[in-house]
């Protein structure tokens, strides 16, 4: 079954900003992108994830949507839905009509998308690579590499729009040969959502099985 896990998606996005930008040009672009997203109270993004591994001849595609408000987020794909209100995480598996409930760990940076545009001051080195057209749009290409040699991610390549400093796509290269490509297919700044959107309402899921792991 093709799925995207919360860990994979948030780690992929978080590593985009866990960069110590030693290249002044790269730092300037990252700062501009960070400022753009931090100015939004809420944002929603439709994305496409492609997992490729040439050794195992693996290629999988997943489409999804994520909405972020501060330390709250809601991630939807065809197979599952993950909701985090900052304290509690609900993982709803559609095929099983089952929801698992767990506590949010604020120390787990991979689970905190509110930090994704503010944490690039440590952990990774960055380098400006080139200008390139990505899906017809001119982008600045920046590559990040980890300072920790044991990091399972050895490189991240970012494509940032020259026009509006938005993050168009990025590719995460892992030591196990997996390569994850994430493309933002639609982006909505400040959509009309409230706090109730970031909580699981079991009355809307008839017969749902609840597994409380707290």
TrEMBL record:
Residues 1-21 form the signal peptide. The keyword Glycosyltransferase does not apply. Gene3D superfamilies: Lipoprotein localisation LolA/LolB/LppX. The keyword ATP-binding does not apply. It holds the Pfam family LolA. Coiled coil: none annotated. Keywords: Signal. It comes from the Bacteria. This is Outer-membrane lipoprotein carrier protein. The lineage of its organism: Bacteria, Pseudomonadati, Bacteroidota, Cytophagia, Cytophagales.
């Amino acid at each position: 079954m093709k799925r995207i896990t919360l860990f994979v998606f948030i780690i992929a996005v978080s590593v985009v900003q866990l960069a110590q930008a030693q290249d002044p040009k790269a730092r300037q672009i990252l700062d501009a992108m960070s400022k753009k997203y931090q100015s939004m109270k809420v944002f929603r993004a439709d994305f496409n994830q492609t997992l490729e591994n040439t050794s195992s001849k693996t290629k999988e595609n997943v489409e999804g949507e994520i909405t972020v408000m501060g330390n709250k987020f809601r991630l939807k794909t065809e197979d599952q839905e993950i909701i985090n209100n900052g304290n509690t995480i609900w993982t709803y598996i559609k095929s099983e009509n089952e929801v698992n409930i767990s506590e949010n760990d604020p120390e787990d940076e991979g689970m905190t998308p509110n930090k994704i545009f503010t944490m690039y001051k440590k952990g990774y080195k960055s380098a400006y690579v080139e200008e390139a057209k990505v899906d017809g749009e001119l982008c600045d290409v920046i590559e990040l590499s980890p300072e920790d040699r044991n990091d399972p991610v050895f490189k991240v390549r970012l494509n940032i729009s020259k026009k509006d400093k938005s993050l168009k796509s990025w590719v995460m290269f892992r030591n196990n040969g997996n390569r994850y490509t994430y493309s933002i297919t639609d982006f909505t700044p400040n959509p009309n959502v409230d706090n109730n959107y970031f909580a699981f309402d079991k009355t809307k899921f008839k017969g749902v099985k609840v597994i409380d792991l707290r």
